[in-house]
Request: fold
Amino acid sequence: MKNRLRVLRAEREWSQADLAERLEVSRQSVNAIETGKYDPSLPLAFKVARLFETTIEAIFTDEA
Amino acid sequence: MGFKFNSPAEGRFNDRMLFIMMPIFTAVVFLGWWGFGYHHFHPTGILAYLFATLASLTAIGPILLIGLYIAEEKDDFLRSIYTQSMLWGIGATLIVTTFWGFLETLDLVPHENPVYVFTLFAFFMGIARALIKWRYR
Reply:
């Protein structure tokens, strides 16, 4: 699954560690999601969307 | 300066391994050395069952603590790494022990005590965890 997490994070000048702290997950989780190696759970996707004040679909896009 | 863990659950898991499992492991090793090695003690009956149960805690304990960690871990990604590592560890252990069993049946290798199975599982799980973390680096 593709996502715009890195772009959204860069716009706010947050490091991966900053974002991880805000989402209450590990920095490794943020890195794995950003690089598309790991798809977040639905609750975490909602949390990401709420944090960036947008919708899940605006951040994550299905490649299928 | 202390260790920095990836999550509070990981910190609790390490504390439990250190403060609960290490004393049990030390006690079992000491009792084994003192009883069997030094005094050539060979327990029978209830005492033998008790010692076997105590010794088995060195395998039961870590499995329970891993289960507790997986239940407590709120970070999906970290939990998935642990779960994947356990599955690879279990799979590799089953493959190796089954293969060894067939070799034993054909008298190609000597009989090995099954108490080493958990050590084998821990070894494979450790390797799997390192490889999975490297994959997601």
